[in-house]
Amino acid sequence: MWRGGRTLNDHAVAALVVAMVGVYPTLWSLSGADHWGLGLSLAVGPVAIYGLFHALDLRRDPGPLWTALARLAQAAMAFSLWTGLTLCFWAPYALLTGDWWPGAWLLGPLGLALLGTAWTYLRHSTLREHRVGTGERALRVVHLSDLHGCPLMTRDDLDAVVARARALAPDLVAVTGDHLMPYSEGDFDFVLDALSRLDVPVVACLGNHDLPVAERLRAGFEARGMHCLVDESRLLVLGDLTVEVAAVNFHWKDARARAAAAIGRMPAPPADRRLLMVHDPRVFDAVPPGRFQLVLAGHTHGGQVGIDVARPWSLLRLFGSYDQGRFEREGTVLWVHRGNWHTGLPPRMGIASEIVLHQLGAP
Length: 363
Known about the structure:
With 363 residues, this protein is an alpha/beta fold. The protein folds into two domains: 8-120, no CATH class; 126-362, 4-Layer Sandwich (Purple Acid Phosphatase, chain A, domain 2), CATH 3.60.21.10. It is built from eight helices and 14 strands. It has a six-stranded mixed beta sheet. A six-stranded mixed beta sheet has the order 6-7-8-9-13-12. The model has no long low-confidence stretch (mean pLDDT 93).
């Protein structure tokens, strides 16, 4: 991960990986290191996590063995994270008693890791439908996000997503950033080729992982007849509707202020529907009320850890974040996409990937 990444964010992720791997030898040490069966069981975690990053670092089809390890790594990383949290609560008791081995209490992290990972894979690419506005003539917008094209989001995976999107008969496809990964910065044509097969107008914005190759990526979109917008808007004629589609760039710092400035510079031509695309949902707070009907975002992967049942919820929501689904402010609606790639870091737990069909009616 350290070698594959180019940004501070990538290197921070590498540090997190080291910490997660470190949970396993820590458990081995706390157990007394005197049971070979436990040692072999704990060794599965680091091996699987290595398999995930080796598969990415191959920068090609990793084959069934490394792919299987990458899938197993999701549960291994989830177990590591839940165990780290458990040890934090266990520490006061251990300091009082001298017993540092949690024993059967580790069944809790194990169960959460397995259940959350299984749910994520079994409900992969869940279809969601969402309506905004009124009237019978609704603009059909298929929303994709966080494709993260890489050796573990392959041509076949992307083709499956594209096939499902085409089957929804959209008027427009919107892709809200993070089209690639550090491991696909050299060759991401397969992502663009897949999107170009949608046979309807495709409009994209940039995400944080796209920034190192932003110009090449934008050129690739335009060469295939698609649009990749950066702090600009386009007026599209889609059947009997004129649609303004706008997008703002991704920024780690001063994201809201920069988005507000970019939107302020955009003209507001007459249009039947108005749509804004962002990668980072934080900038929703900077969107002027009434300027757009619908704001589409991604980036959060649905909060990564949560519950996806009757009323979706994630840990990010505890901090007041726009984590997933629909939010509304002063008449403007935000939809935060959960992302289409689901094998990576942090591991998804209980949050399935999705394909969203927005039906955008009259204001």
